[in-house]
Amino acid sequence: MVVEQADALQASLHGDRQVDRLYESFIPERTGHAVADLVGGGGRSAPTHPGFPDPGHPINRAFPRGSGMRIQPGREAEFTRLSSDRFAVHTRAVAFGDAVLALLVEHRAGGVAPQPGRLRGAGRWVGREQQLVPDRAKWPAKLDVFQTVTLAGLGWLVLACTGLPLTFGQRADLGSHFTLWFVAAGLIACTGTGLIVRHGPKLITAPGPRAVVPGLVAGLMAFVVWQGQGPVAEYYFAGPYERYDREYANSCLAASPYRRDAVQATADDGVLVVTPISGETALRLGPAEDGGTHPLEPLDQATRKVLDRYGC
Fold first, then answer.
1. Burial code of 182-192, b = ≥16 C-beta within 10 A, e = fewer?
2. Cβ–Cβ contacts within 10 Å for residue 286, how many?
3. CA-CA distance, 248 to 258, in Å (whole number)?
4. More reliable by pLDDT, 292 or 180
5. Fewest CB within 10 A of the end CB: N or C in the chain?
6. pLDDT above 60 for 105
7. Residue 36 belongs to what H/E stretch?
8. Is this prediction's pTM over 0.90?
């Protein structure tokens, strides 16, 4: 029984895939009579495209060389059978599910059917898609105060994320690529807005004050992103003076004549020149660039000797 129903389902699948291939493009025969031309009973098959001899091939149907479309002559009975198989898929799916259920009951449950009201198998659920996958939640006609707070928190989070490429691009000194900044910011804004529109109704369905919880979480995340993106960008794309303080002045040179409050520093043409007020050897470090990510390295032998002397 299960095999028979599986064969019937396979026939419905075959019918769904093949029934459209029985159509062909044709050139109607003009008889001069308005009624006959409207019905289009006569005519000849249109030529097929090179390499696609089958008149029912999707290419020949998508780009027809005739002015009409009809069932290929002599294949009307086959078309009727395939169409019947296609439209019988719902009934056959239910029958297949029932057959599988009967087989499971016979061989797995000792012939005892499941209790009424319980799930009876896949066949019982065909056509009940609304119960399995309900409609998408919709926005309420009017937002209450808790839902408004949640929506504001989600919007603030999107706004904070939109500022990420602008902040990092400005700190990385990528002024020539400002178009790319705004494109990235626009993509983030559109994506965030789309996610709110798609999933927002689910986040505000909780009754009463519980509807504000997603908004509070989103607001906290927005605050962290908003306050943290500047320091993070400054850390990774630091200027030459900040890098000198971080790599030398606040570490190995902190107790030397090269500490930050005892030197004069200038950056020009990619070279940071650090001159101690005490008259010690000037340091030449590079690459000294705004928004750079490379550490400062000695550019001459005299600078290397000074750094080696202080254990840098």
1. eebbeebeeeb
2. 19
3. 9
4. 180
5. N
6. yes
7. helix 34-39
8. no
